[in-house]
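=== RUN LOG ===
request id: a7f3
mode: sequence -> structure
chains: 1
length: 141
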Amino acid sequence: VDFSQPSFRKRLAIIDLESGRIGFHRVAHGKNSGGLYAKAFSDTIGSNMSSIGLFRIDEKYIGSHGPSLRLEGLDADTNKNARERGIVIHSADYVSVRSILLNFSQGFRLGRSEGCFAMSREGLDDLFARLTDPAHVFAFA
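=== RESULT ===
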């Protein structure tokens, strides 16, 4: 996830290391990380900010947003509290072209999460279809 890109861009890359195939999707950032761009990051519980660094995808589960992926933060300095914070990958209606257009006065930004990697339902379905074990997420800015 390239958080240096504006949220309306497809800034999440899914890379299949065996085939070399890459797919790109939109992903939201935490509401306290910024508007159009994610500029602030935190691993603090309750911060509603995105975290950066390396995460391991631990398990698929059904949560309040439907099928989701639980994450384990692997960076002691930037995301070690991810599991305790409930930072996951899930789908959300606010990750859509409609949301981008509704937020035109704020630079066409996506809706924002509480720190989770929120994707469109279609994006999450594509991620599920490509996942193999082990799988990781790397977020940077």
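=== NOTES ===
The longest strand covers residues 53-63.
The longest helix spans residues 121-130.
=== END ===
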